[in-house]
Design a protein that fits this description.
By secondary structure, the chain is α/β, with parallel strands linked by helices. It is built from 14 helices and 18 strands. The strands form three sheets. The chain has a nine-stranded mixed beta sheet, with helices on both faces. The protein is globular and about 75 Å long. It starts with 22 loop residues before the first strand and ends in a 13-residue tail after the last strand.
Length: 534
Amino acid sequence: MEGTAKMAQSNSQAVLKTERGGIVVLDFGGQYTQLIARRVREQQVFSAVLPCTSSVEEIRKLEPAGIILSGGPSSVYDKDAPVCDPAVLSQGIPVLGICYGMQWMAKNLGGKVEPVQRREYGPAHFNLEKAESHILGGLPETLKIWASHGDNVLELPPGFHLTGKTANAIGSAEDHKRKMYAVQFHPEVNHTDRGTEILRNFLFRVCKAEPKWSGKAFIEETVEAIRRKVATHHAICGLSGGVDSTVAAVLVHRAMGERLTNIFVDTGLLRKNEFEHTLEMYRKRLGLRVIGVDASEHFLGKLLGVSDPEQKRKIIGREFIAIFAAEAEKLQKSAAGAIKFLVQGTLYPDVIESVSVKGPSATIKTHHNVGGLPENMPFALVEPLRDLFKDEVRRIGKDLGLPEEILVKHPFPGPGLAVRLLGAITKKDLETLRDADAIVVEEIRRAGLYEKVWQAFAVLLPVRSVGVMGDGRTYGLTVAVRVVQSDDAMTADWVRLPGEVLERMSTRIVNEVPGVTRVVYDVSSKPPSTIEWE
């Protein structure tokens, strides 16, 4: 590279044709905001989540066919209650307010909102009124719905008419003239009967949206957008061995060919035999240009004595970039053009959890390929999957012709085993964790469950407990087994494994992994827990 010249980190991307005419979801900090976006995309209509504070100009750039105002944890009367520009309601674009979104609409348009004595959360019954409804048409008179709110709309704004009630509140209302619609419940969650139909009615009856969001169209447009962005320059891609970075690499390879050099780094934090196996697959089966870098001693040296998970993530992110820069320096001598871009497999959930960029949503943790990157980057970023959920990435990978082995591979965190080995990292503990993790995966495969669950892995805890082995007292290590089911990593539930599978895992780990005397099973869901322990 040209020394270590600073290059602006750019995540901005031109709006693709398939993204125009979609739905903008304005986030007021609701726990279901991303679920709304997913439900819209399931109808092959693009959705983008923007902070509720986004300007009308930012919203109109996406040329939306409709706008959805999300729910949120606040009261509209809170001092710091999230708000959006009231001009959003006067653009002639159909608007659907959900829960807090309904309350914010009502308050701003002259209605009356009041706090409830006790927050309404959970299942409830909703009764349709006989008034004409554009979004509830064709539904039964009574629905089971999911409520989650602390305020109720007491009086509707002028121009709105009542379309449904619950036992305690106005449940839905519409203003056909101004194309405004509101529901006090959550149609996006599975607990609401016919919720998908309600959203479909808004998308297609009201907004006249076109179902044009498809994998094939995304691939074609993204490849062309990448070509325009990188021009004649070269790029490097950080491969992790997982589906995200692999799909990103294959997609960018279509746009750049041999001007893309992939770098697969052995951080010393990979799973058992993963480095050698994955490197061979990249080169021989996918035909990618890949450089394998053994930096295990380097990373372990930088992580020596570090226990804090956020520090681990930041160190790993920083050192990844340092290694990329060093490899790019070597490559620059033989490259026909300047290496100016870094390709990453960043996904939507990574962005959401790492940085509070979607309205008031809370930051959960830093991902090494988002918040863990240093401010002064020697590369501009190319993140072709940044707006996709995991299941969408797998579908894109299938359309790209990737081997099934890659498409069904369980997600693996960017920091690797560093965030599955709680506390300080040592070589010995890493080997212990690697061996235990391999047994977990082997037994999940043996039970025919690998492709049916989202993730299955082991965690080494900084906890020792008394045990008995060979008639002698031991004071050994504790391994936690984590197996979850999910669609997109935004939410996850622990898997009810058969007792015999858990028994085989426990028996094998205790007998085959030196130093481990206790195995526990994690029965936490997300939320409130995260999938990874750190």
